[in-house]
Amino acid sequence: MQRNKFLIGAIGGATAVVAVGGLGTYLLSGTESTTGLDSYSSATVDGHKALSARIVAGRTQSKYHPLPWVGEKVTGVTCPTALKAVAGATVTCTGTTRGGTAIDIPVSVVSTTSDSVTWRFDRS
Predict the structure, then answer these.
(1) For the segment 86-105, what is each residue's pLDDT rounded down to a tens digit?
(2) What is the pTM of this model?
């Protein structure tokens, strides 16, 4: 009887650890961001508010490889222009993998409000 309780407890504990790890991975590995459009983060492209290329590049680089088992580490991420705050707008940023390979990172706007833009990138 004592042995069965131990096994049930051990299996339950291991299951909880795996569930918490899975949830943490899911939360940290997201490729979608909502960023406010303020005087520090915004620019103008074709008369539209836009998210600064510097902000898009920095956030993409930091979220591309958030955990050792998610994504590949990239450095030197740059974006050619600001990301227009219009749903469906796109820009292709570039970065370099640890092995020195240049990669393209497509970025697109999911939705916008008057003071923020929700955007995402595709992790290859």
Answers:
(1) 999 999 999 999 889 999 99
(2) 0.71
Residue position matching structure tokens 């915004």: 42
Cα 55 from Cα 42, distance rounded (Å): 9
Q: What is the dihedral of CA 63, 67, 73, 76, to 10 degrees?
A: 30
Strand partners, 84: 50
If residue 8 lies in a helix (H) or strand (E), which one and from where to where? helix 2-28
Question: Measuring CA to CA, which residue among 85, 81, 91, 92 is closest to residue 118?
Answer: 85
* C-alpha distances in Å from residue 89, one per residue of 30, 34, 48, 69, 70: 19, 15, 11, 30, 26
- Structural tokens at position 30: 């997201």
CB 45 within 8 A of CB 81: yes
Instruction: Delimit the domains of the chain by residue range.
Output: 31-121
